[in-house]
Amino acid sequence: MTESTSRAVRRGALVELEVGEDVRGSSRFNEDIAPTRLEARTWSRWNIAALWVGMAICVPTYTLGGVLTAYFGLSVGEALLTILLANIVVLVPLTLNAFPGTKFGIPFPVVLRSSFGIRGSNVPCLIRALVGCGWFGIQTMFGGLAIHLLLSAIFPPWRALDGVGEVIGFFLFGAMNLYVVIRGAESIKWLETLAAPLLLAVGIGLMVWAMPHVSIDELMSQPPSRPEGASVFGYFFAGLTAMVGFWATLSLNIPDFSRFAKSQKDQIVGQIIGLPLTMFFFAALGVVMTAASASLVGETVSDPVSLIGHIDSPVWVVIAMVLIIVATLSTNTAANIVSPTNDFQNIAPKLIDQTRGTLLTGLVGVLLMGYDLLQKAGLIDAGVTLESLYSNWLLGYSSLLGPIAGIMAVDYFLIKRQWLDVASLYQDGAAYPAYNPAGFIAFLVPVALTLFSLVAGVWTWFYDYGWFTGSALGAIVYYAASKLLMKPMAAVQPEGLVEEGAR
């Protein structure tokens, strides 16, 4: 029998909400974004680590070293060090913002209701969702190309379809992604846990294959592309900011996954094990494989899908493309679909459930890539490839999300002192306002300064180091605005919290 009033029960270090009719009947609640029950919090540190391995091993990671050397003026050694340091840095907001998800079992949109308001949370949610949908489209393009090359190797006449084959592959791969997410968190957990060791083994195999064809000493001694005599620090910190921005989105919606963790220790250790070294290794693999490609296939190729497509053996192409598909699937489902799905549900939980949110994510992703799909299908003739344009735009756009990361951390640890009234987060007019002005002020101030520095050409450092400046300023402004504008909430156990076993 369901109680009329919800109550929070502390079970060890975790808090579980026993949902009553007051929350269940609220327009801000549905079962898919409800607090995770304790029996469903089954992800160990190894599941969390596997999640990051599955997300980090993807085509964009493979190309990061080349991006830093070609566009940021870094040497190969400097580029790899930058990638390693960036992923150590990004562990800080990742682990901090994962805390409320793990402790209370709540997803990212519900966590945001504390700092932006019950309805105001939709603004940062939709900003995050748009980034996720864009990356979903880009990764699905890579997956669709892999499916096209796979079918071409199995059925040679398929190759004649050319761009149309890639479009068909895009929709096939997209459908695979959506199916996994619609199946739920356990399906994602299973996929990531299965894919992680396989992808690591393949990466090691590719490194062994490429090493005889490249001189590491020559590779590391190549001069950087920046002007001779220029200081490395400006180029290094610009590259560091861009690399931190690579996972800026996940540093926000990490509660979408940490809500399933067994404990805070599991989410912290799992992320430390899974993220920095995997990113470093696969970026290093991209540098080595690109350098070795001239010897392997007769020309320099920086895209792993295209590189494998140059292999003469159909058997190896089939095997490699299946692995590329698995790698991209494991990245896309977790990194680019889960968050938009939850974010869209936050708008109207009674109307949009997980299935509808997932389908809406797919639809927006297709629309964002529509121009490129029409171009590949030969329906329009244009020389602009939106994959590259979207990639550049999304990396810059992600840096604007820094303030939200700072706001979330300050709200939970300093303002709310690690206690949230979970039942009230699912109800209008309860303990939390519809719109929290402190959250919007703290978000808009750094974003306005970032755009001003970009347009006016002054304070260029504020834009160049946008994620760092934005997150720091957002955190400071939020703390000050909360103290000045908001009524203090009790920084103690929420009303109704009971110890396990209490009646």
TrEMBL record:
It is a multi-pass membrane protein. One of its GO terms (cellular component) is plasma membrane. Its main location: membrane. One of its GO terms (molecular function) is nucleobase transmembrane transporter activity. Coiled coil: none annotated. It is found in: Membrane. InterPro entries: Pur-cyt_permease, Uracil/uridine/allantoin_perm. Belongs to the purine-cytosine permease (2.A.39) family. PANTHER family: NCS1 FAMILY PURINE/PYRIMIDINE TRANSPORTER, PURINE-URACIL PERMEASE NCS1. This is NCS1 family nucleobase:cation symporter-1. It comes from Salinicola endophyticus.
